[in-house]
Design brief:
The protein is 36% helix and 25% strand. The chain is an alpha/beta fold and 261 residues long. The two termini are 33 Å apart. The structure holds adenosine-5'-diphosphate. Residues 13, 15, 20, 22, 40, 42-48, 214 line the site of adenosine-5'-diphosphate.
């Protein structure tokens, strides 16, 4: 699997009203098969950073390397999952969506179907291979998106608030499912969220960003065994500490909707 290096990355948006800092001087490395969550308030540069790693945005300064190779545009070494349910192709079935990347790679039909079915099994959708997105719930659509991102076997999985639009119970189920998928595939994952409990549940390390300009404030390893218990004292301690760094108190988190509580 492939490590990621982010070296002094900065990006500024030019707008009619002037320049807006996206991220500034951000540096970190990620080991192979690590699960990293990036947290921070809205507008602190999480999505900008993820889009730079995905190759959808070009940093104005600094560089990003994946397995030593400089990122220059999007590549099939990175699978991406967004928050928006509309990321799926509405005219394709679940199987058709998941096979898309393999089609682009020129993989023949039998092999495509085999791999796509296997990925849909991984996200527990083997019974829905022929369903179209509009017949699937939001959680199921996000599972198809995860299967699609994994189908062409990228070494890195990039996820931008993939469960933020789901109801709390579905989100809890999805977090458990993602933890299982990660355990089985051991991808290197970069996961953006504003939900601290979600980050403590999923991550090996949590990177905390602060806005104006978007810089990295803290890099906190989460030394808890898996599967994690969101109601354990240790879990709540991590959550409290992270919320403290974000300037929230423990009472705020109740209204944010926490992992499995
Ligand atoms: P986050 O994902 O943490 O909410 P973003 O990366 O989306 O933060 O945004 C970081 C900053 O960049 C914010 O101030 C935001 O308003 C600004 N920004 C993001 N995208 C654009 C864009 N396309 N044009 C102008 N400014 C943008």
């Amino acid at each position: 699997m492939v490590p990621i290096e982010v070296n002094d990355v900065s990006l500024v948006y030019d707008t009619p009203a002037g320049t807006v800092p996206g991220v500034k001087d951000v540096s970190f490395t990620i080991d192979a098969s690590q699960f990293i969550c990036i947290v921070g308030p809205s507008g602190c540069g999480k999505s900008t950073l993820l889009n730079c790693i995905a190759g959808f945005l070009n940093p104005a300064a600094g560089e990003i390397r994946i397995d030593g190779k400089k990122v220059d545009g999007h590549g099939m070494d990175r699978g991406v999952v967004f928050q928006d349910f509309a990321q799926l192709f509405p005219w394709r079935t679940a199987l058709g969506n998941v096979s898309f990347g393999l089609e682009m790679k020129g993989v023949d039909r039998d092999e495509r179907d085999k791999v796509a079915r296997e990925q849909l099994r991984l996200v527990k959708l083997e019974k829905f291979v022929d369903a179209y997105p509009h017949h699937l719930s939001g959680g199921m659509q996000q599972r198809v998106a995860i299967a699609r991102a994994l189908a062409y076997n990228p070494s890195v999985l990039l996820m931008d608030e993939p469960f933020a639009a789901l109801d709390a119970l579905t989100r809890d189920d999805m977090q458990r499912l993602l933890a299982d998928v990660w355990r089985e595939t051991r991808k290197t994952v970069v996961y953006v969220t504003h939900n601290v409990a979600e980050a403590v549940y999923l991550a090996d390390r949590v990177l905390v960003m602060t806005p104006h300009p978007g810089t990295l404030k803290l890099d906190m390893p989460i030394a808890l065994p898996r599967p994690r218990d969101p109601l354990s004292v240790e879990f709540l301690e991590y959550q409290k500490e992270l919320l403290g760094h974000l300037g929230h108190n423990a009472a705020d988190q109740k209204t944010n909707g926490n992992a499995h509580s």
